[in-house]
Structure formats: C-alpha cells, structure tokens
Amino acid sequence: RIKRVQPGTRHAFNLWKIQSDEIYGGERVNQMIGERIQSALKLRNVKQTELATGIGLSQDNTVSYWCSGKRKPNIEQIIQVAKFLDVSSDYLLGLSDVPTNDIQLKAVCD
What does each of the 110 residues of the chain score in pLDDT, given as a tens digit? Predict the structure, then answer.
C-alpha cells in the first residue's frame, strides 16, 4: 500500500520511520545506520565530536548514540552527516554499499 504525503512534512518523516521499521526492523536499522556513520567517520578520519560540531549539534553525545545504535538520526541529520562526511545518504541508509558521492564510480561499483 503506497501512501502519498507532502515531501518535507512531519507526515513524510513519520511515513519514512514506519516504513524503515517495517523493512529493517526498528533496532536493526538503528544499528546499521550507526555502523555506517562509524565507518564513514573512520574513512574520513573524523572524530564524533568534530561531526557533532560540524553539523551544529548542541550535544556531542548525540553522535555517540547514533554510532551505538541507541538512536537514529532524522532525515535532515542524515543529509547533514552525508554532506559533512562526503558520503551518500544511500550509503548511510544501507541502500548502497558504496560510500562515494561520485555517481559514475558508484554506478561501476554497484
């Protein structure tokens, strides 16, 4: 069943959350996103505190919660993390195993 919602609204986020929980299983998606963020941090040689500061988080422990799978970032935060770490949001969400933003390289790898 496909639901149509206005992009960028609270309803769109809630629909994404419901679908991601149904597809991946609530805690598993948190763990997977956390592992991807941790991997991207290591790839770019960036510390969690640097990421938190770079994307404007007021609490440094938020990134730690993401990496441990205790929480997951919202859509806006995923986009900010992807831009800051120069990886694709598809990679962070587990839709691709290729962290690059280079479309041509990604096509070859996928």
Answer: 444 544 555 554 554 554 555 555 567 888 999 999 999 999 999 999 999 999 999 877 999 999 999 999 999 999 999 999 999 898 899 888 877 665 555 555 55
Kindly state the tokens that stand for 43. 């790839």
Chain centroid to CA 37: how far?
Answer: 7
pTM score:
0.70
DSSP one-letter code for 8 = T
Q: CB within 8 A of 65, min separation 6: which ones?
A: 71
For the four alpha carbons of 55, 93, 8 and 13, in that order, the dihedral sign comes to negative
